[in-house]
Write a structure and sequence with these properties.
heterodimer, A: about 220 residues, mainly alpha, Four Helix Bundle (Hemerythrin (Met), subunit A), B: about 550 residues, Cytochrome C Oxidase, Chain A, disordered N terminus, binds protoporphyrin IX containing FE, binds copper (II) ion, Cyt_c_oxidase_su3_a-hlx (chain A), Cytochrome oxidase subunit III (chain A)
Amino acid sequence: MSDTLADGVGLHVIEQFVDAEQQRHAGQLGMWAWLVTELLLFAGLFLVATVLRVQYPESVHLAVSHLKFWIGATNTGVLIVSSLTMSGAIQASRLGLQRLTVYCMYATAALGTLFILLKLYEWYDDIVEHMAPWLNQPYELAFDKPSTLFTNLYWVTTGLHGLHLTTGVTILMVLALQARAEGYLSRHQNRIEVFGLYWHFIDLIWIIVFPMLYVIGR
Amino acid sequence: MTYAAQRDAHVPHATIDAPKDYLHITHTVKSWLLSTDHKRIGILYLISITGFFFIGAVAAGLLRLSLVVPDGSIFTNDTYNKLFTIHGVVMVWFFLIPSIPATFGNFLLPIMIGAKDLAFPRLNTTSWYVFMTGALFAMLSVLFGGIDTGWTFYAPLSTAFSNTYVSLALVGVIIVGFSSILTGLNFIVTVHTMRAPGMTWFRMPIFVWTMYAVSMIFLLATPVITMALILLVMERTFKIGVFDPALGGDPVLFEHLFWFYSHPAVYIMVLPGMGVISEIVPAFARKRLFGYKFVAYASIGLATITFFVWGHHMFVNGQSDYASVTFSFLSFAVAVPSAVKVYNWTATIHKGTLVLDTPMLYAMGYIGLFVIGGLTGLFLATLAIDEHVHDTYFVVAHFHYIMVGGTVLAFLGGLHYWWPKFTGRMYNEAWGRVSAVLMFIGFNVTFFPQFILGYLGMPRRYHVYPAEFQLMNIMSSAGATILAFAYVFPFVYLLYSLWFGKKAPDNPWDAKGLEWMTTSPPPLHNFIKPPVVDFEAYDYEAKVPEA
Ligand code: HEM
Ligand SMILES: [Cu+2]
């Protein structure tokens, strides 16, 4: 890490590592490796979306125009702000400002929750409007069969992203509660750095998902 | 002890301060099941995959039994379909893929680079539990009556037609994928961050390089099949229509996603074997590995090119000619790094002082069979020939030569080579040699006829065939019987050695590498004293320096 840490900020070295530097590096590299895997997981969905867009442009257009663009757009904004507060938490933790770190983490978790609530409302609306072909109910665009594929893909993709975000908020809340403990930053500051990578990643995935589902071909 | 003294086989170990080895620190079952020691986890994996190997082998035996008669009267068609599916699924996902990385890799990688453990020991324990959970699902699907799609799970057969427990098996395979990913992640971080002082990248044994390359494939390819299989399950459950043409989906898309993982997966299965062979050959030829850097780069080369050849499984499914020609060309390119390795092993053997102990016999068998498997791969990559032999026994023989003749022989070679290190015991050398030779013979009798059968047009996955093919099928089944003995022997004499074998010295083969500089079996954190590396890999010709 090129970023310097304030005095008294660092980590408690566990037995398999030689020193703090090694442990810090290992933790972060581990998260990066995990994120590469996650990216390829989502890549499968991106590929399917591309194939559908090439094969059935008309139907995709039809399905896209039934998605709730403004909720999606608002949520994009919400996540971008949450990445900002997460960066705030990381920076504060490096400087040893424990109170500020915890507050920034709370704010991030709150924004994440806001995203999830908006998303739930959106899904609810989709169901009410008969835009859930995988449910046992009539489907709004039943006259256009291929549009079903795209609408289902929308559910799978946003569902998987929602799952990641829910996991993220849960971990974040646990971390934030732990981070209130005396001397936390001198023992576990790296956890906040590592978690931050994950949080930014969920944000980044949404930034790909949003245009892929809601914007292109609207 | 200085490290120079540590390296000298003639200097006895300082036994006074030697801690207990990893097997004898604690004895309870719990201490094994909750262990975070990479060595114990390697052993847990070894026990589990041995179990799966025997399950897969029983299915194979029944398949060969059925094929003794041409009229398919021994089993019903449904049963036969289920047998080859169980065989393929268990062997590929529950034996071959985890085989060398999760056992030898877990046990040896930290030792070979002079680390105390992997970077994330608890994650490592978790990966074993994830593996066993996935296995549980797959085994349940077998107990409930089996699945009949083949190990390839092609849609729409798997999504719209099969009424067996496909989803359950798919969930099992998806879960197992995560255990591979966790292992790969652990290896990559460990190799990057935990090498001992002096252990530069180009001083790492080739085995570590291949583990690194395999981990890359785990991280980059496994998630793609995870997603493809998740979509399959969704399609079976909710009819979401990604792959089923009746719903507007595209079945070829599944083949793309499947082979984008599964061709790299064949290198997950074969690269570790290459790593093992690269350790055994120099040790028993008493020479440096020829062209060390080329072999290291070839491992990375294979792991890269392997991502761009998946279309050679789809030559006859209607993909465009341009695609076919490109994939054909790239498949030829993949053979180059493979050949580099074979030449380097051969050159290492050339003018070496050969010691034909059991591990070396397995290694030589490996080289021979891998060459045949690889060359027939080139036949298959040739468009005109593949039109003729696609989906015949020729393909079956090709991949068995590589996966069984190659990987399983390498696995057993490695098991014998490192057995003294793992267990602290020596096995019976005579039985070892007999089994190794028997395996080579049994293997060829089983699978060589299949090349001919396939060339003559016998399709795979059918058990009713024209009477004129019976003779060669009987040969193949007879060979399988020999092979069965060749697998049971090591199982018996290795187990026997655990209680009655001679105590193993620290370095029974006089081999080089950090794993031979610690005790057999190693202590909890692998080394009595953290090693400092001031020597190259495989320095067999080096003089022992003065202490
Ligand atoms: C030297 C490089 C190799 C080349 C050029 C090659 C080429 C091919 C080709 C063209 C096919 C498709 C044949 C067909 O379906 O008509 C094939 C099938 C196969 N190969 Fe290879 N191969 C190579 C190495 C390997 C290795 C190293 C493994 C495994 C460790 C392997 C395992 C398989 C398997 C499992 C199949 C059949 C899959 C199935 O349809 O179930 N191959 N190979
Ligand atoms: Cu392939």
